[in-house]
Structure prediction request, 678 residues.
Amino acid sequence: MKRRNMLMTLTAALALSVTQGTAALAQNPVLKIGFVGVTSGPAAAWGISNQRSMETRAAWINEIGGYKIGDVTYDIEIVSFDDQKDPKRAIAGMEKMAQEGIHYVVGPNVDDGAAAVRPVAEANGIIYFPYAFPKALYTAPASNAVLGMVANYQSGPAIYKYLMEERGVGTVAFIAANESDPLSQRDSGRAAAEALGLEVVSANVTYQVDTTDFTPVLTPVIRTKPDLLVLSGVTPANAPQLIRSARELGFQGLISTETAQDAQVLRESAGDLANGFISVGGASTPEIASDDMNEFVARYTEMFGEYNDESNTKVYALEYILATLAANPAAIDDVEVFKQTIDAFEAPNPYMKGDAKMRYVGVSSFGQRRQIAVPLVVNVFQDGEFETLFVAEVD
Amino acid sequence: MEQVIVNGVYLGSQYAMIALGLTLIFALMNVLNFAHGQMYVIGGFVTYTFYGQFELPFVLALLMSCVTLAVLGALIEKFLFGPVIRRSAREESTMLLAAGIAFLLVFGEKQRGVPKIVDGVFNWDFRIIIPYDRVLICFLAILSIVAFITFMQFTRTGRALRAIAQDRVAAELMGVSVNRYSMIGFALGAMLAGLVGGLLVTITGVNLGMGGPTSIKAFMMVMIGGAGVISGAILGGFILGMLEAVGLAVLSQYGDITYLAIFVALMIFLAIRPQGLMGKPWG
Prediction:
């Protein structure tokens, strides 16, 4: 009898706690925002920094009472899907988002995934924010994709020009993983370098993305003795290994990439050998970071134990989605309204000091506003930390 | 040419060590351990934690990798593989089980690395360039292989493991405790994965995604050398290392076709000699 009473009490307590929990969750209606990207494998750091940025920001918004869009205040829920860098899984992920009635999705992280999900997104009224560079995704007649970062064909020329003028670079070699993203970045990088008058001494050497020891791969490249070695589309996992092997092979020149990297990974895996490595940083530096950016970093670190510098860029996509919906609440269920809104959209940028604005750009690259404006920050790694080389803007 | 040979020997010694553990487990239990690459990754993470994070001596961290993986291997055999093999007549179950334990990793998404154990680069007039830490790792790998062969040849446990590999039933009839030595063998195979993971983390670093590709390369080496044959795994490792080094040197200007060429050659080779170089024709 006693046991039965105890069970009933436990059941009642459980039911009460569930009811209370539901009541707490039900205070605001929930707005679901999707994420489809790579959160496992060698490129996992790219997608995980996306997902964690979104989850950090969503938790922050929910903690302060929600996000007001029109007359309604929403709690934000992030629905995530790991596409494992596989286009087939990316399609499945986007279909899952459509089934859940989600209209705004961040990702995918790579070119083939972003291209693969396009028909699903267009058929189901989804606006998505890829971190992939093919211009066809953002150029008419395509209209549902919005580039979530600065493309390599926008940052590359700026970096090469700087290095030509400031460091006297005359020859360049490219090395890329044998995958669509790095190869397309290598090709556009090579075109940009040649257009600027640089001599390309090596651009054919590629490597498997799962390579762990780059000494044999880099040996023929280093023999060409370039002034600048460009690691096209390199993942944060591969960058320190490539740098380390290049330096150990006696390479004295400059090394750069147009992808974002992580200081801790470079510090641990390459140490001082990574000094002087130039990369496109997260869209923040101590000089331009606002209090909100600093709070975001603190919250992210508290939630996940360590920060990822890429998240300085990845924090923006969710902010743009919410701010654009706030600018025109009718877009919450209608992406055509969203598309009309972004042309004139402008809002204060909470992550930068001063009067910086959030706005959509990309007219010069894509002929329409299909790119979010984030600062182009070019960093140089020095003694374990990134130092800002220069800051620029797209468009 | 000299550089290609040096790269081949260096890669081959790494690969041979990875293949050794896989082929040992296959020989003893007829299990294709799809989690072998993940065990290698765990070995790397253990060394990373003790050497890179706690700043303990590298040798101690390496020892911790070996012990951790040996214990983990024994537990996996005792509680996962052993019971399934005894109860199931279908080989797919054990293969799926091995794939399943590949999801046990919880070390975070980032690439991890540790300080170099030896600084400096050997440079012979730009004909041979190789960092000293690679020379050391290559030497330690070859030393470990020799130690492993000696252990298998001249110890009571080694003889028992070889007996089980040759004929499980006959070994049991001769008084060998098959269950006990299967567990020891699995632990030894896992320990080898941990050892090579711990050694290579000083050069390649470690991340969660490394396990799958490592397993695939290990399977290739075992196929080249012959499944379940220790000498075959070593030979397969050195052949794959040499093929990779030659391919990267000769074919680099044509893009990343080294492994395409290796896979094509492997298909032709297996069509002619399906049991591998050292395997027996009856399996």
Summary: The radius of gyration of chain A is 23 Å. The first strand of chain A starts at residue 30 and ends at 37.
